[in-house]
């Protein structure tokens, strides 16, 4: 990583107007890493634009700097683009961003990354993009402020499932400990990201649980939320079902869990498993044009969830 870190630093030093973006629907890891980088770039005197399609979910609005995030770009006057957690440029979800003709620093930890950047800071062995950015800060001897520490620890906590997932390593715990020493409050982060579900969101989880099915033959537990189901709950936040697939996956008999949710004309799929279950869910996600990790992956397909006369779900 040292060579990639150096190349990325050189591009940053040579740039002035920098755009930071990630995949649409901000999550704690890529969003926290993006904001941490933004804090540092502004300190260096850079003009920074933060653009994330569909903005900031309520659970992450506590992150320092989140108020600066806009839905899309309104000009093309950039000399550097830095992406976070995007396996390809198209994942940012913005035609305006995809049309930019500027150098790209691609920062990611997913094994299916297409290496689309001029510089690719990609390490699938890291627990999270946030842990990768933490090491980038150390490489450059950048000061980690309380604000930066909060953003990075949020990323690590959310992508490791509060250190319960198998991607948690000793280096992850070392980074988390240091970020706490720098002022990040782990209890505040967990309260905001995991323990702040509204009654409406809890009711939506109840409906999703009601719609769950266990396939005894294939040992799969899955749930669906159709357009009709979602219509019962007005103005659900984008991250309303964050953590739901992990909850399904706690069923010990199941080899993996799958959650399918209608999102307009698209069906969003989320897959989770555990190391001892010996299932690589990324292969399933790849079959539907998605990707991710062996134990946590996702995909999107065009179509609509409907139940046939036999009571089985299908996509039309």
Blueprint of the fold:
Blueprint (H helix, E strand, L loop, with lengths): L1 H12 L3 E6 L5 H16 L3 E5 L28 E5 L10 H4 L5 E5 L10 E4 L6 H12 L5 H14 L10 H12 L4 H8 L5 H12 L2 E3 L4 E6 L1 H5 L12 H5 L7 E8 L2 E7 L8 H7 L3 E2 L3 E7 L2 E3 L5 E3 L1
Parallel strand pairs: 1-2, 1-3, 3-4, 4-5, 7-8
Antiparallel strand pairs: 6-7, 8-9, 9-11, 10-11, 12-13
Helix pairs in contact: 2-4, 2-5, 4-5, 5-6, 5-7
Structure, explained:
This protein is an alpha/beta fold. It folds into 2 domains: 2-193, inorganic pyrophosphatase (n-terminal core) (Alpha-Beta Complex); 199-315, Diaminopimelate Epimerase, Chain A, domain 1 (Roll), CATH 3.10.310. The protein contains 11 helices and 13 strands. The strands form 3 sheets. Strands 6-7-8-9-11-10 form a 6-stranded mixed beta sheet. Strands 2-1-3-4-5 form a 5-stranded parallel beta sheet, covered by helices on one side. The protein has a two-stranded antiparallel ribbon with strand order 12-13. A hairpin with a 2-residue loop joins strand 8 (256-263) and strand 9 (266-272). The longest helix is centred in the N-terminal third of the chain and has 16 residues, at 28-43.
Unreliable stretches covering 5 or more consecutive residues: none
Which value, in Å, is the CA radius of gyration? 19 Å
SSE run: HEHEEHEEHHHHHEEHHEEHEEEE
Helix/strand/pairing category: alpha/beta
Total helices: the number is 11
Main β-sheet: number of strands, strand sense, barrel status? 6 strands, mixed
State the CATH topology of the largest domain: inorganic pyrophosphatase (n-terminal core)
With strands numbered from the N-terminus, the spatial order across the biggest sheet is 6-7-8-9-11-10
Q: How would the global form be characterised?
A: globular
So what's the CATH class of the largest domain? Alpha Beta
β-strand percent reads: 15-25%
Number of strand elements: 13
Average pLDDT score = 91
